[in-house]
Design goal:
InterPro entries: TAT_signal (IPR006311). This is Tat pathway signal protein. This protein is α+β, with helices and mostly antiparallel strands. Helices cover 26% and strands 29% of the residues. The chain is built from ten helices and 13 strands. Strands 2, 3, 4, 5, 6, 7, 8 and 9 form an eight-stranded mixed beta sheet that branches. A five-stranded mixed beta sheet has the order 10-12-13-1-11. Strand 8 and strand 9 form a beta hairpin. The N terminus is likely disordered.
Length: 339
């Protein structure tokens, strides 16, 4: 194995010849690799490779016979046998079209998904938290119950307080709120067991709660929601481990690289990217340019990546190199003399 070169290099490919070409290109506005011509010429293009392993099945396929799945097995059983299993609000297999769940049963591999088949209305408790001054709110009554520590609450309440705390902290500020968890400015109780065990939702529940030092005023409302109803779907996609591997490769792997087809310089770039990462400023060396082309990321070389790359200055994907899979990321970083 070649000794990886330093990950932060600044190479001028071709010496004076490349310099002359770059100057000429600047004059006519046609320098190859225009990402360096957008007023940020000192930046570097970084490449990192993360090892995924020798197979994709290990991380992508659930075997309920060996691992307790996150989803309800009843959904898998019903969908696999042509029956009907529905869930409300949450998808049955926690999967999306872009990130499907796969499972294996008795040698057959299934793609698990869902379709919306109905809408259901439900009234849910909503917990919101509001900050108060150290001395209370508007001279609160002396007999007002003291604040309860969130750590002493049931598990469902602790989770509700944590998420409602994020919403309270972000209220009036920009960012900092987990949008996927916060709803309507607080936390929505959807688990019936959590509702039954809740202290905060009780009629005589506390109206002050302490979470990580701040004391919050508790507000509980019951609001109407209209939620989708999902039917579980299980589609057979392969009858062997090799077949499943092919499905996953076709879905997720872009480039396939063979070391014998790459130059020594390109191999050095890949080795460095596998370890500490690799960086170069424009104009890129022949070896770096070869790797970028092999990854099918030509906008970084042949055009304006902001325009040709879909408006993004970072690229990512999955490649197969020799006998292993790697996830890669390309992104621009400030140069050494940058801010």
């Amino acid at each position: 194995m070649r000794t990886p070169k330093p990950s932060r290099r600044r190479l001028l490919a071709g010496g004076l010849a490349a310099t002359a070409g770059a100057i000429a290109g600047c004059l006519d506005g046609s320098v190859t690799g225009s990402p360096a011509n957008d007023g940020d010429a000192d930046r570097v293009l970084s490449l990192t490779l993360s090892d995924v392993g020798e197979t994709l099945r290990d991380a992508a396929v659930v075997d309920p016979a060996e691992t307790d799945p996150r989803w309800n097995e009843a959904a898998f059983t019903a969908a696999r046998n042509g029956g009907t299993h529905t869930t409300q609000y949450r998808t049955p297999f926690f999967s999306t079209a872009d990130d499907p769940t796969y499972a294996v049963h008795e040698g057959t591999y299934y793609r698990l998904s869902s379709v919306v088949v109905d809408e259901a209305a439900a009234t849910r408790p909503v917990l919101r938290l509001f900050g108060i001054d150290e001395g209370g709110v508007d001279g609160a009554e002396a007999d007002e119950p003291e604040s309860v520590d969130a750590e002493t609450l049931p598990e469902g309440d602790r989770r509700a307080v944590e998420i409602a705390h994020f919403a309270a902290r972000a209220r009036g500020n920009v960012g900092g709120m987990p949008v996927g968890l916060v709803e309507r400015g607080g936390y929505v109780y959807r688990d019936e067991d959590a509702v039954e065990a809740s202290v905060l939702l009780a009629d005589d529940g506390p109206n002050r709660v302490t979470y990580r030092d701040p004391v919050y005023r508790v507000e509980v409302t019951r609001e109407r929601f209209h939620e989708p109803v999902y039917r579980a779907v299980a589609e057979p996609v392969a009858e062997s481990p090799e077949g499943m591997e092919a499905v996953l490769r076709a879905r997720t792997v872009g480039a396939r690289l063979d070391g014998e087809d790459l130059s020594a310089d390109a191999l050095d770039v890949i080795e460095a990217a596998r370890h500490d990462g690799y960086e170069e400023s424009h104009p890129y060396s022949d070896g770096y340019a070869e790797v970028i082309r092999a990854f099918h990321e030509r906008p970084y070389l042949d055009g304006d990546v902001r325009k040709d790359g879909g408006g993004s200055e970072s690229g990512s994907g999955r490649v197969r190199y020799e006998d292993r899979y790697y996830d890669y990321r390309l992104r621009f970083l400030p140069g050494e003399s940058g801010p």
